[in-house]
Amino acid sequence: MSAPVSSPVSAPVSALASTRVRIGLLWAGVVLFAVAGSATWATEGEPTALVGIVGYAIVGAIIQGPRSENRVGMLLCALAGLWLLGMLLGLARMLAGAAWAEPVEQALTWPAWVLLVAIGLVFPDGRISTLLGRVLAVALAAFASVTAVLQLLQPGPMAFTGAPNPIGAEPLGAVAEAVLGGPIGLAVLGAIVAGVLVELGLRWRRADGPARLQFRWLLLGLAVAVAANIASTAANALLPPSLLVEALSLTGVALTNAIPAAIGIAVTRHGLYEIGRVVSRSVAFALVTGFAVLVYALAVTSLSWLLPGATALGVAVSTLVAAAVFLPALRWVRRRIERRFDRDRYDAQQVVAAFGAHLRDDPDPASAAGELGAAVDRALQPATVGLWLPGGR
For 142-184, how does the pLDDT look when each residue is reduced to its tens digit (9 = 90+)? Predict the structure, then answer.
């Protein structure tokens, strides 16, 4: 009896169907994350998951869909999955009064942040390529396991409800307090994070070409997220409560998504070579936003001193002044920042502007063709330049 012959197209069709199912499940998870985040914001007034963490779920689905073997996408999806499970447990605690849900919800916090740190070890190609990286990966796994168990079994009142932990173990009380809330846990995690940054830096130094640009994107994402959160924290600490302060706080949370966005650009290499333009515009917006906040703070302080009984008027006038200086300052700063961080684009703009000015002053058709070719050569530096004219001239 002859063996059955399989169709040559059956394997590709099966693989395509499997990929579509996986992508569908990933995006269904993103939708569920958004729904749970919206419910958490509505019930607890906490926007962090919906505004600040949803980017990890989206980028994880983008990477993991066509690249199922990439560990960067796996870790992003796992991080979003832990946040989603924590939100569902929080809703069960809030809406159903499930006492057991709170310790499990809290126990997921440490592994979620550890996964964020672990992404640095497999970035950008999804592999741990150094001995130091493998040692740090083991340390991260051990730290996540220990902290999760200690958080789950920590006795005493729980953070949200204040009720005793129903599964708490008294013998672990002192150890849990020292590791989770004391200097031991922070010192261990800080040492691991420092090691991951050193490992990233060593790989960055050895990288070249597109790989170096991938590391630059990650650095940009980290810098934007850290700077935005520092600015929002400072605004909450130094400025009186107002709509602007609330907007800055929400913006700081939202810009946490700069980390997964930068990871997505670096891993997919979509827009990888736009790093100069993005850096120049990010620096320009950061400087001008800081200047506008400073103007707002000075205006509020001055008007409160001059008109102590007109607080609302002072806030309104200060907001208008800050808004009025924002766009002119942004244009002025951007022109100067682009000279440093986006020099290729700036030089190209200067060449085009000079060519246009020359044509206006001396519109000679005989020399325009040669000057156009020279302008293209200076602006784009192609290997060859050709110019087609009607009539074959």
Answer: 999 999 999 899 888 887 777 888 888 888 888 888 888 778 8
What is the rounded distance in angstroms from the CA atom of residue 389 to the CA atom of residue 393? Answer: 5
Give every CB contact of residue 95 below 8 A, 6+ residues apart in sequence: 43
Q: What is the pTM of this model?
A: 0.70
Confirm if 156 and 164 have CB atoms less than 8 A apart. Answer: yes
- For residue 271, the model assigns a pLDDT of 76
Burial class (CB in 10 A: 0-12, 13-18, 19+), 85: middle
Residue 41, both tokens: 């914001």
With 0-12 / 13-18 / 19 or more C-beta atoms within 10 angstroms meaning exposed / middle / buried, residue 49 is: buried
3-state helix, strand, coil in the chain (%, to 5): 80, 0, 20
Distance from chain centroid for Cα 20:
27
SS (H, E, C) 121-136: HHCCCCCCCCHHHHHH
Q: How far apart are CA 222 and CA 372, in angstroms?
A: 42
pLDDT at 245: 77
